[in-house]
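Sample A.
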Amino acid sequence: MAQDLDFDEDDLRALAGPRSFERGQKYLAAVEVGDGWITGIVHGTDAYQAELTLDGPDGLAGECDCPYGVEGTFCKHLIDYLCDRYARGDRLIDAVALRRTQFAARRSLVAYQQLRTVARAAGCWQVEREPALVLLRTDAGQRQRSWHGGPVLVDALLDDGDVDAAWGAAAETRAHDRQWLALADRARIARPADALGVYLRLAEPLMKQTGNTVYDQLTGLLLSMRDCHHRLGTEDEFTAYLAALRAGQKRKRNLMRLLDQHGL
């Protein structure tokens, strides 16, 4: 017997996440419903044929003819497609299971966030979180990186607001510089000395480069350094560092102008 799928819109958003919810609503078309199955067209970059089997021998299963789907992955188009069907069911636990499966297949920050959202709605995030982090720790140990560089583990812990754990993971897993900068910014109040060390390291290569984008980055780092020194009570050290930097970079007129504008 086909399963009755009665979700309300709030549960649907929890299942899909805001982006997938909107995408699923916009791109779903040509729906056909049978006894235990659903087929339809999902329009994304191209139009893809998606099919869900709701009550097969292995429970929920799906196929899609997008590049990820033909490789056997339960792709985003099927997730988007399922959004439309779950709009009429009360099955948050099944939604968690779906997001857990999706995360296990493609361990990105977005998939982690989507799992967290629906698990919180179902009241089981504390149960789901640690197994998800175990998978990310395994990936980090194998030097698998996110799309933007660095282990997804660090991004996930930061996104959870677990800054101390994220810092420890970054130190153990060779985090990307963008992750170190985000960590320093988040930890600066509680750990100004550690944050200062990050800012100093990131500033060093920028001094050998030119261009307004570089100057903006360097100025931002200097402002953060100044804040760290203020919190540490070492303003004199910053004054000496800045004076040496200005002396060494004085030919970069745009940089000098920018530093003047920020009182540096």
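Sample B, a different protein:
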Amino acid sequence: MRGTRAAVARAVAGSMVVAALATGCAGEKSGTDDAAPSAAASTSTSAQPRKPPTGTPAEKPADGAPAPTAAALAEIVLAQGDLAEFRIGDMPAQRAPAGSKATPSACQALENVRIGINDPKPSALVRRYATGTVGDHQGTGTGVELSAYTADGAKRIVADVREAVAACAGGYDGGALHFTKVTALRPFAVGEETVAYRLEGRGTQPTAYTLVREGSVLITFTSATTSGAAPDVPQPLVVQQFMKLQAANSRR
């Protein structure tokens, strides 16, 4: 009886983490859906290219190579069996939000990541959900998202998030939620650019985020724990996912 109760408690706690992460990543359905087109954004470097017309999808990286399709991303996203200490499956589908406004506006990039609607929108996107089953990351649930942009668009998102982390350390209002703290974290040494932070607020689960850019592909990790303790994005997920992306790029 005691074992049964413990199993039920773990299942309930796990479902709460899934619900929290799925709510924050409800911009697209799970699987291999193509994202809707939108205006491509300029780069974060000093040389600012001319923006394409509004409504133009982010289809090609700056180097002229075609951006990965949803099918290509689905081939390299983490899958069950990649890591023995994690159970990996589809991200539960949720109703897609229309958007959410951040106050102050300097924090909008953080709110975009939280709800899973970046600016610019990707030309292709896939999502998976990883649950730590044993070891240091047992009870940690992590949303894993691979999205394709122009190289300039991907750079713009990372730059905007990095600036927002610095500007919004004291928190912000996102939709109906009030976040009291944004904590910059030390990112893992992978990818061309990486930014990491933790978001905390009243009545919300503390959530850790890591964004990794490699060329025109952006990998976003979103982690929370069953205990409600301040989480960290599990390093094995970040490293394994980046290695799979690197291997695919070497074959292109």
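Observation for Sample B: The radius of gyration is 18 Å.
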